Amino acid sequence: MDQEHNPYHMPAAKIAETTSEERLRIEPAGRWRRLFNWLIDYVCFTVVSMVALMPYVVWLYVRGGEAALDSLETPNLLRDYGIGIAAMLLYYIPMESIFGFTIGKLVTGTRVVTEDGGKPRWGQIVGRTFARFIPFEPFSLLFSSDERRGWHDSLPRLYVVRKR
Fold first, then answer.
1. Residue 72 · residue 64 · CB < 8 Å
2. Among 94, 97, 104, 110, which is least packed by CB within 10 angstroms?
């Protein structure tokens, strides 16, 4: 039987090698797109924080009634910073490590990628999130000569790129 017509013969066509991991081009998201990312994420982060704080508020009310709720109006720097940091970690780390984007990045069509365009590792996302707490870090993108990266991008060696 002819090799060409044998239905059990291995195909001769070469299959292009692909990786299971999608790679994106390093096309910068740009300052304006990143500003919109931040604005959208700020609103979403605030809403998520308020929803996440509801069990704490209910617990305070059950434990101490109105007097305990009134204690929330008294400034407490340690409590307030602790809640803000925890909420920020709970918003950014799961979204960027699982999906590669936040709600702001989803809306603006951008993603967080490694220097070769691949998916970031969990440790890089954690580092990126903690780098956001560096004082004056938001200005690092605004006044940087490299419009693609702020400190929270360059320290963990990540980029925010256009996906669409």
1. no
2. 94
Query: pTM for this one?
Result: 0.74
Q: Residue 96, SS3?
A: helix
Domain membership of residue 95 (yes or no) is yes
The DSSP letter of residue 25 is -
Domain span at residue 116 reads 26-162
Helices 31-70 and 77-98, axial angle in degrees (round to 10): 140
Question: Which residues does 92 contact at the CB level (< 8 Å), separation at least 6?
Answer: 102, 125, 128, 129, 132
Q: Are 155 and 131 in contact (CB under 8 A)?
A: yes
Report yes or no: 161 and 24 within 8 Å, Cβ to Cβ: yes
73 found inside a domain: yes
- Angstrom distance (rounded) from CA 133 to CA 122: 18
3-state secondary structure of 10: coil
Q: pLDDT tens across 77-117, in order?
A: 998 888 888 889 999 999 999 999 999 999 999 999 998 88
